[in-house]
Design goal:
5-stranded mixed sheet; 8 helices; 297 residues; 3 domains
């Protein structure tokens, strides 16, 4: 009815009711109480390991207690915090002579780190690296996991803040390395997106095929970023907040942007032909624009 929205979010036996119509929210609560045995815990403060703090104009999400529990279980509470979550220019890979680590423990730790990245985007790349060795972890891989934990010791208070900015702009940033994986020379794509000025999604993932140039690596990363923007548009439309203009996807590679906006198919772009047609289609209908952003920014 009109612009009124009520949302019910359920995970197993935990639920959150939110919206912009208090009367409808109360009616939903009364109805659910007649169908199920429920307990109203009041305003949202804690949900699935995520702590929620509110002010008049913002919401802050963190997993401080989750980190403390994890550090306690791994006996890392007294560790010295690391300055960075991973060594720069690391050479993590699977080697024939590597010393194996406890696979079950490694998988559990990485799984918890994956969940921690829900509110800690700054460990997304590092977690994506260590998650590539779940089937055959070594002592070096375990050391990388423990370094992430020691970094988190010094970043307990960091989380996500959502502020009212008064607009419905949707934008993203995309980037990729080239042949960064020393084992198979595949590139890693990364993107993150903002809705109404707030960071909402991010991802760092190794590409499925080997890129033959840095432009190809960036172009495939751009396609992933556009897919994420389209998903966000569908989600926002469902909850009555459809973007009013073209979504922006910032890229720091000029050649990649020129190929995306070039109406002519060249021999040098045939190896990314599917991604090229997909991106060009979204540009033609003005769903997405691809402005330039400096690498430094």
């Amino acid at each position: 009815m009109g612009e009124k929205v009520t949302l019910l979010i359920i995970y197993v036996d935990d639920m959150v009711v939110t919206g912009n119509d208090t009367e409808e929210m109360e009616r939903l609560h009364v109805y659910l109480s007649t169908e199920f045995e429920m307990k109203d815990l009041g305003g949202l403060k804690y949900f699935l390991g995520i702590e929620v703090a509110r002010s008049r104009d913002s919401i802050y999400l963190s997993q401080r207690k989750y980190v403390l529990d994890l550090l306690s279980k791994t006996e890392m509470l007294a560790c010295k915090p690391a300055e960075t979550p991973i060594v720069q220019n690391h050479h993590l890979a699977i080697y024939p002579d590597q010393v194996p680590a406890n696979r079950e423990r490694y998988q559990k730790l990485v799984g918890r780190l994956i969940y921690l990245s829900l509110t800690k985007p700054y460990i997304a790349y590092d977690v994506s690296v260590v998650s590539q060795f779940m089937h055959s972890p070594s002592k070096d891989h375990m050391a990388a996991v423990m370094r992430i934990l020691s970094y988190l010791k010094g970043a307990l208070g960091k989380g996500l803040i959502f502020i009212k900015y008064g607009h419905l702009e949707v934008k993203g940033y995309t980037d990729a390395d080239w042949a960064g994986n020393i084992t198979d020379r595949r590139s890693t794509s990364g993107y993150f997106t903002f809705v109404v000025g707030n960071l909402v999604t991010w991802r760092s993932k190794k590409q499925n095929v080997v890129a033959r140039s840095i432009v190809e690596a960036e172009y495939r990363g751009m396609a992933h970023g556009i897919c994420e923007l389209l998903w966000l548009m569908i989600l926002l439309t469902e909850i009555r907040f459809k973007p009013r203009g073209a979504m922006l996807l910032y890229c720091d590679n000029q050649d990649t942007r020129e190929i995306a906006n070039d109406p002519v198919q060249h021999d040098r772009t045939k190896h990314v032909e599917v991604d090229r047609h997909f991106i060009k289609e979204k540009l033609d209908v003005n769903l997405v624009e691809i402005p330039y952003v400096r690498s430094e920014d």
